Amino acid sequence: MIWNDEFETLPREAIEALQLKRLKRTLERVYATVPFYRENFRQAGVTPEALKSLDDLRRFPFTLKQDMRDNYPYGLFAAPLDQIVRIHASSGTTGKPTVVGYTRRDIETWAELMARSFGAAGAHRGDVIHNAYGYGLFTGGLGAHYGAEKLGASVIPMSGGNTKKQIMIMQDFGSTVLTCTPSYSLYLAEAAAEEGFDIRQCKLRVGIFGAEPWSEEIRREIEEKLNIKAIDIYGLSEILGPGVGIECVEAQNGLHIWEDHFIPEIIDPDTGEVMPPGELGELVITTITKEGIPMIRYRTRDITRLISEPCVCGRTHVRLERMSGRSDDMLIIRGVNVFPSQIESVLVKIEGVEPHYQLIVGREDNLDTLEVLVEVNEKTFSDEVKVMQELSTRIRKEIKDLLGVTCKIRLVEPKSIARSEGKAQRVIDQRPR
Ligand code: DLL
Predict the structure, then answer these.
(1) Which ligand 1 atom sits closest to the C-alpha of 237?
(2) 172/264 same-domain check
(3) Is 247 in the pocket of ligand 1 (CB under 6 A)?
(4) Per-residue burial over 85-101, b = 16 or more CB atoms within 10 Å of its CB, e = otherwise
(5) Beta carbon of 97 within 6 Å of any ligand 1 atom
(6) What is the CATH number of the domain that holds 394?
(7) Residue 70 shares a structural domain with residue 103
(8) What is the pLDDT of residues 224-269, one digit of tens each?
(9) Which of the two ends of the chain, N or C, has the fewest CB atoms closer than 10 A to its terminal CB?
(10) pLDDT, tens digit (0-9, with 9 covering 90-100), for 390-433
């Protein structure tokens, strides 16, 4: 269902005219209100007047996750705190999260774009939306929630975890739409089977899955195990949260990015140059309606390409091919963003261990697992078992406190982790793709 016929089917020229107008206003606004942008533009030798056409956007400098960290917590906000009605955050490399703020209008825009996204996935008023994205600083839960309400559906604010209860509610409340990470959907299916409940028989019709990479194979598996249509949704907190782009149920081929609010570009991650149309590269997004924290040329680090061919669904907004990876070392474990350097920051503070470690990421029962191999020093190694056990409990707890991710710790003997002459191989990702 097309939720907003006027905007979702705008002809190309009209989209571009709107983008130019909104982009100009955004550049002027950040230049006037955010010292970081004024300085960043100055260093690149541009002012908002440099923008005459959409192509001129490439003359403006990128914004990086590091810039958000350097301006922690509110430095990139373009609106005063008394106009910010919501704050979300996602994890960064140093343990400090990246913080985003929404004005009342931003929240309305977000709800509108999530309502459009639900519509594109085939959801509508009358649906019972079982929202198992986490509620909290993570944008998934509340982002989907407001969109589901705007759509006029009945939303069940489940949040993550408590899997048995999820299954009971899904069955008893007649959930028709499931929103969660793709890996959690498979876990739900399996847990349901263990409870003796055939999830294929329940009323679920469609699942809206994102926040982590997944593949066509996993899609087929989910569709088969849950007997639903599985739709890919993309988003990131720096830009909005969920609802930046979504597949339409008609084509299930590429995610429409809402171009009346965002301008996507694809760049070569090494040179920063804009790639020719249709080429694979790093997605860069500029927001053109956000008030709280507008983003100019934000480097998402996500790798994709733009599909500009017309889509059978009638929407005119360009599509992003399913994300095929990231250009940095960020891992996504059960939906949580984790940088190896965050784990390192925990280890270096702990006495008795060496800064040599390895992260082994796997998948068990359809859920991501993380095992951290940590080298201990000679002295600790010769200590009693009890000392070693306490050490591993402490590391596990500190990682959990910092990242919210439960992991297994394996303490290994001195010098047993292979040293490398080049880049250390910190991560062994054994998850099936
Ligand atoms: O994951 C927002 C979200 C919530 C999206 C619910 C979809 C559904 P962050 O925690 O800031 O925000 O993580 C953003 O997750 O840069 C991608 O690397 C990855 N990601 C998000 N959606 C997809 C997807 C939310 N559909 C980071 N496919 C992004 C692949 C995805 N990766």
Answers:
(1) 11
(2) yes
(3) no
(4) ebbbbbbbbeeebbbbb
(5) no
(6) 3.30.300.30
(7) yes
(8) 999 999 999 999 999 999 999 999 999 999 999 999 999 999 999 9
(9) C
(10) 999 999 999 999 888 999 999 999 889 887 655 567 899 999 87
CB-based contacts of 234: which residues, under 8 Å, 6+ apart? 210, 242, 244, 245, 246, 255, 257, 302, 320, 323
Q: Are residues 66 and 98 in the same domain?
A: yes
Domain check: are 278 and 149 in the same one?
A: yes
Q: Whose CA is nearest to atom 27 of ligand 1?
A: 236
The tally of domains found in the chain comes to 2
CA dihedral of residues 248, 251, 252, 257 (deg, nearest 10): -50
* Ligand 1 atom 14: residue of nearest CA: 236
Q: Report the residue among 135, 332, 403, 433 best suited for mutation to probe ligand 1: largest number of ligand atoms under 8 A from its CB.
A: 332
Domain of residue 95, residue span: 1-327
Structure confidence by residue, pLDDT tens digits, 333-378: 988 888 887 888 888 889 998 878 899 999 998 899 999 999 999 8
Are 320 and 364 in a shared domain? no
CATH of the domain at 300: 3.40.50.12780
Gap between the Cα atoms of 298 and 150, Å rounded: 28
**Pocket test residue of 303, 331, 337 for ligand 1, highest count of atoms within 8 A of CB:** 337
Same domain for 273 and 357, yes or no, is: no
Residue of 154, 91, 53 lying closest to 341 (CA atoms): 91
Q: What's the 107 CA to ligand 1 centre distance in angstroms?
A: 18
Instruction: Give the residue, by CA position, lying nearest to ligand 1 atom 12.
Output: 236
Q: What is the reported pTM?
A: 0.89
The CB of 234 under 6 Å from ligand 1? The reply is yes
281 and 345 assigned to the same domain: no
Ligand 1 centroid to residue 247 C-alpha, Å? 14
| Separation CA 368–CA 218 (nearest Å) | 14
What span, in angstroms and rounded, lies between the C-alpha atoms of 57 and 55?
5
| Position in ligand 1 atom list of the atom nearest CA 233 | 26
Which tokens in the block code for residue 13?
A: 């020229």
Last residue of a domain, one of 296, 327, 358: 327
